[in-house]
Amino acid sequence: MTASHAASDASGADLALSSVTKRFGSFTAVDDLDLLVGRGQFFALLGPSGCGKTTTLRMVAGLEEPTAGRIDLAGKDITRLKPYKRPVNTVFQNYALFPHLNIFENVAFGLRRRGVKDVKGQVQDMLDLVELSSYGGRRPGQLSGGQQQRVALARALINRPQVLLLDEPLGALDLKLRRQMQIELKRIQTEVGITFIHVTHDQEEAMTMADTIAVMNEGVIEQMGGPTELYDNPATTFVSNFLGQSNLVAGEVLGQSGHELVVAVEGSKLGVPMDRARSTSGAVWVGVRPEKVFLAASGTETEDNDNVLRGAVVTDVSFIGVSTQYLVRMPWSQELTVFEQNTGARESFRPGDAVDLHWMAAHTFVLDAAQDAHAGDETYDADLAPAGAGT
Q1: Are 286 and 360 in contact (CB under 8 A)?
Q2: Radius of gyration of the chain (CA)
Q3: To the nearest whole number, what is the mean pLDDT of the chain?
Q4: Cα dihedral sign, 215-218-222-224
Q5: Mean pLDDT value of segment 5-23
Q6: Cβ(253)–Cβ(284) below 8 Å
Q7: Which of 308, 307, 293 is nearest to 260 (CA)?
Q8: Pair 107, 126: CB distance under 8 Å
Q9: Quick count: other Cβ atoms within 10 Å of Cβ 201?
Q10: Which of 87, 134, 157, 198 could bridge 162 with an S-S bond, Cβ 3.0-4.6 Å?
C-alpha cells in the first residue's frame, strides 16, 4: 500500500487518485494528479474549459482510462474496472431521460435492470426526496428543465452509489432556476449522505454547494480547500482571479514587523499578515478583494490601522442594486475596482472625484510576482487593457 492509499484509508476518503495522468496524443489533459475526497463530502472540481476537470470525472466513471496512475474507491482499486462494475453513477447536463417512459419508470430503470422485483417503495422514496411525489405518471416532456434534472438525480441515487458524479448538471438551466437547484442539490446531498463530486466552471455554483473545492488549471490542482479559505487566502494569481475578482498591485517586500509583512507599493507601506503571504521577499503582488476596500474623499480620513493607497481618481461608476462598482485610476495609471454596499452610510462618488483607498491589513494577501497578474481572469484582454493594467 502506498502512502497515498494509506492516507486514503486513514482519512476515511471515498475517492483517492494517485499520480493520475491522462494524455491524448501529445496533449496532457491531466498531469500527475493526487486527490483525496472525504466520505460524505460535497466536493467540486472547478476550473475553466479545458482545465482537465471533466476528464478527471470521466476517469473516475470509467469512461476514460488513465495513461498512468491509480484510482481507488472506498479502498478498492478501480483503475481498470469497466464502468458498469463501478459503484458510481453520473448525472449529466443533458439529463438523458427516456422520453418513452414515465417518471416512475425512469427512476425505477436501474432497479429493474438489476432484477429488483418490488420497486414501488424505493421509487416513491426517491420521488419524495426530490419533491416530485405526484409526478410519477408524467413523461419527461411534460416536466420543466429543473424537474427533469431532479428526475435524473433520483434515477442515479436510487442505485445507492458509493459516489455520485455530477458533470455540469445545472448548465442547461436559466439563472434563477440554477440558483434554486444549487440549494436543492445541497439539501439532497446532506439528506442522503453520499459523496457528491461536482464538475463546474461556475465559481458561484461551487462556492454555494461544495464543502471542498479543487481549483484546476491546465491539468493540475492550483489550490484545494473550503470556499472561504480559497476566496479569502488564494495561493496563486490564477485562483485569486478565477474565484471572484482581485486587485493585484506590484510591491516590494521591506521586511517583517511583528506578525506582519511590510510591503512598499508606489511610496506607501502596506501591512500583510504573515499567514496570508505566499512570498516573503523581493517583488510580490499585493492583493485585496474589491468588496474589502472603501473609498474616502482624498485626504479626509486618517490611516489608523488601515492599508491606504492615496491619490486615486474615480473613472467609472456602475450602480448594480445592492452595491456600486467603482473603477479608480491610481497615480501609476493602473485601474482598480471597488465594490461598496449601498447602505447609505458612506459618501458616494462621481467620475473625476479624487479619492483614497482604505482597507484592513487583515484582508490583504501577497502572491509571488513571478506569476501572471492576469492568470485566471477570463474578462482580461491585453489588447483592450488600459495603460498600466499590466503592471
Answers
A1: no
A2: 25
A3: 90
A4: positive
A5: 74
A6: yes
A7: 307
A8: yes
A9: 19
A10: 87
pLDDT above 50: residue 366: yes
Grid coordinates of 6: 494509506
Per residue in 299-328, pLDDT (tens digit) is 887 767 789 999 999 999 999 999 999 999
Beta-strand relationship, 68-73 and 42-46: unpaired
Contacts of 24 (CB under 8 A, 6+ apart): none
> Which domains does the chain carry?
3-231 (3.40.50.300), 248-368 (2.40.50.100)
Instruction: Give the three cell numbers for residue 173.
Output: 438551466
Residue 93 is placed in which grid cell? 447536463
User: Can you tell me the distance from the alpha carbon of 144 to that of 339, in angstroms, rounded to the nearest whole number?
Assistant: 36
* DSSP-derived pairing of the beta strands 195-200 and 42-46: parallel
Cα angle for residues 342, 343, 348 (degrees, 5° grid): 55
Across-strand partners of 198? 44, 166
**DSSP category for residue 131:** T
How much of the chain exceeds pLDDT 70, in percent?
A: 93
C-alpha 38/C-alpha 167 separation (Å) is 19
Q: Answer yes or no: is pLDDT of 65 > 60.
A: yes
Mark 161-172 as b/e (b = at least 16 C-beta within 10 Å): bbbbbbbbbbeb
Question: Which grid cell is 48?
Answer: 475553466
For 224, the grid coordinates are: 484545494
Amino acid identity, position 341: Q
CA dist., res. 181 & res. 89, Å (int): 19
Residue among 361, 324, 362 at smallest CA distance from 342: 324
pLDDT at 382: 61
Residue 310: CB atoms within 10 Å: 18
Residue 362 DSSP label: G
Q: Where would I find the beta strands (DSSP E) of 266-305?
A: 268-273, 283-288, 294-297
Number of Cβ within 10 Å of residue 80's Cβ equals 11
Measured CA to CA, the distance from residue 77 to residue 58 in angstroms comes to 16
> What pLDDT score was predicted for residue 386?
53
Nearest to 276 by CA among 229, 208, 207: 229
